[in-house]
Amino acid sequence: MPDPSGPPKVERLLYMGGLALMGGFVVLAFGQLFAAVAAVLVGAGTLVMAAARRGTSALKAGRTRRARLLFAAATAPVSLLGLAVSWLVGALSGALDVSEACIARQQHFDAGYRALHADEMSRWFPLRNACNADYDLVPVWVNPAVVLFALLLVASIAVLAGGLASRIVNGRAQPGS
Prior knowledge:
This protein has about 180 residues and is mostly helical. The chain has two domains: about 1-90 and about 150-175, no CATH class; about 95-140, no CATH class. The chain has seven helices and no strands. The protein has helices spanning about 10-30, 35-60, 65-90, 100-105, 110-115, 120, 140-170.
């Protein structure tokens, strides 16, 4: 039977942290695919919170292996989503006409600079779409977000692979997992 006093403090903190993270993403993505990003983030946040609650209860019950796997299972799809959204925001930051995007931001469009640095503008990472030597259309938060989400994705996949390997090697589920 659930406790009538409400969720434990740890779950409330996790919930509030998730809401703050989602709010941050919505603010950063404002103006660029706003409705789709907001809907996906709310859905992903709901999934993360459900896994985090299950992981927290597993941790309280002393089942640390299960808690780790639940947290990793929640982190992997959200990291992939964050990686895709942040990369797309950066890749689409100049729209179809870069010169118009630069003018709209009251920046001088330097075609000579872009021709000289064309290889930098077409890389997958780091994302760059410069109007001139001093102004880049890619928001400053995009490249660090891409790195952060890629690291989180790799770490969560490693934890999940380790858990799967442990189950395969042992041939059965471990007690307390």
